[in-house]
């Protein structure tokens, strides 16, 4: 699933910081010692296994940051579903620079493609239910924008980007406020009318209280399918429903069958396996 590319303004600092970490104080000792400075080469970025492609723009920036004249030709754009041994991109430029940028480029593409692939798998598993897969704020520090981009490429949707774009009242908020009603009332008074208010509940009694307060969404946490189904019935026409808590590829279809509107899965950003992608010299 193709998505609008993220702005270079967001991506370039990530790439530069990552290259700076890898090059250290003395640069790429291996490539500099072995390869003459003016040597050029051509490389293919290749998916070693089937999956969904993500992160090629970060790879392009990595190569072109070290060699501004490098050519980066996308063969399979972000969002493409590819089979093993598919060539994703062709790169031509100074050999020293391309090899120095190789690991940074591959780290981004492997990680983001893994997220997109895991998301696409979950999206397929909840068909034909009218349910969407969403990620959470459980992201790698400083990589949230690109990880959430990868989720969208896999057919998922994004939950909050940060603490500043929606209200989600959780158990600790309620405990400190003294009650759910106090927490909701304070939240409603403290934000504008365009900000949605969601409450996390783990019992049907809490759900009924939240619905009586007129919240916009409810996060149904760690409920089994039977309780989820009952919760969804109680929410009809009153609030949107989201299921979360320990959901795996093996259990997600049963959760979707309860009728929830969305399913929140934290591990697709913080623990998705990478997609194996390599860089091969064109022979």
TrEMBL record:
<keyword id="KW-0808">Transferase</keyword>
<dbReference type="InterPro" id="IPR022412">
    <property type="entry name" value="Quinolinate_PRibosylTrfase_N"/>
</dbReference>
<comment type="pathway">
    <text>Cofactor biosynthesis; NAD(+) biosynthesis; nicotinate D-ribonucleotide from quinolinate: step 1/1.</text>
</comment>
<comment type="similarity">
    <text>Belongs to the NadC/ModD family.</text>
</comment>
<dbReference type="Pfam" id="PF01729">
    <property type="entry name" value="QRPTase_C"/>
</dbReference>
<keyword id="KW-0662">Pyridine nucleotide biosynthesis</keyword>
<protein>
    <recommendedName>
        <fullName>nicotinate-nucleotide diphosphorylase (carboxylating)</fullName>
        <ecNumber>2.4.2.19</ecNumber>
    </recommendedName>
</protein>
<feature type="domain" description="Quinolinate phosphoribosyl transferase N-terminal">
    <location>
        <begin position="28"/>
        <end position="113"/>
    </location>
</feature>
<dbReference type="InterPro" id="IPR027277">
    <property type="entry name" value="NadC/ModD"/>
</dbReference>
<feature type="domain" description="Quinolinate phosphoribosyl transferase C-terminal">
    <location>
        <begin position="115"/>
        <end position="280"/>
    </location>
</feature>
<dbReference type="GO" id="GO:0004514">
    <property type="term" value="F:nicotinate-nucleotide diphosphorylase (carboxylating) activity"/>
</dbReference>
<dbReference type="InterPro" id="IPR036068">
    <property type="entry name" value="Nicotinate_pribotase-like_C"/>
</dbReference>
<dbReference type="InterPro" id="IPR004393">
    <property type="entry name" value="NadC"/>
</dbReference>
<dbReference type="InterPro" id="IPR037128">
    <property type="entry name" value="Quinolinate_PRibosylTase_N_sf"/>
</dbReference>
<comment type="function">
    <text>Involved in the catabolism of quinolinic acid (QA).</text>
</comment>
<dbReference type="InterPro" id="IPR013785">
    <property type="entry name" value="Aldolase_TIM"/>
</dbReference>
<dbReference type="InterPro" id="IPR002638">
    <property type="entry name" value="Quinolinate_PRibosylTrfase_C"/>
</dbReference>
<dbReference type="Pfam" id="PF02749">
    <property type="entry name" value="QRPTase_N"/>
</dbReference>
<keyword id="KW-0328">Glycosyltransferase</keyword>
């Amino acid at each position: 699933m193709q998505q609008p590319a993220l702005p270079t303004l967001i991506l370039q600092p990530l790439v530069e910081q990552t290259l700076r970490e890898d090059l250290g104080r003395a640069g790429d000792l291996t490539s500099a010692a072995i390869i003459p400075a003016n040597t050029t080469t051509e490389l293919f970025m290749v998916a070693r296994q089937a999956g969904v492609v993500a992160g090629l723009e970060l790879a392009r920036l990595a190569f072109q940051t070290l060699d501004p004249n490098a050519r980066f030709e996308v063969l399979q754009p972000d969002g493409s579903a590819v089979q093993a041994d598919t060539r994703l991109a062709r790169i031509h430029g100074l050999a020293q620079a391309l090899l120095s940028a190789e690991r940074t480029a591959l780290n981004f593409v492997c990680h983001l493609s893994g997220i997109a692939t895991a998301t696409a798998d979950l999206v397929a598993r909840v068909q034909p239910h009218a349910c969407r897969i969403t990620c959470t704020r459980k992201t790698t520090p400083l990589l949230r924008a690109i990880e959430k981009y990868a989720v969208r490429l896999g057919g998922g949707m994004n939950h909050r980007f940060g603490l500043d774009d929606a209200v989600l009242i959780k158990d600790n908020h309620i405990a400190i406020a003294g009650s759910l009603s106090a927490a909701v009332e304070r939240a409603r008074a403290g934000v504008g009318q365009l900000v949605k208010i969601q409450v996390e509940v783990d019992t049907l009694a809490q759900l009924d209280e939240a619905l009586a307060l007129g919240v916009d969404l409810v996060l149904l946490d760690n409920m089994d399918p039977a309780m989820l189904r009952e919760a969804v019935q109680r929410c009809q026409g009153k609030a949107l429903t989201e299921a979360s808590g320990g959901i795996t590829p093996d259990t997600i279809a049963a959760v979707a069958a309860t009728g929830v509107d969305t399913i929140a899965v934290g591990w697709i950003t913080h623990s998705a396996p990478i997609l194996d992608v390599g860089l091969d010299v064109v022979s």
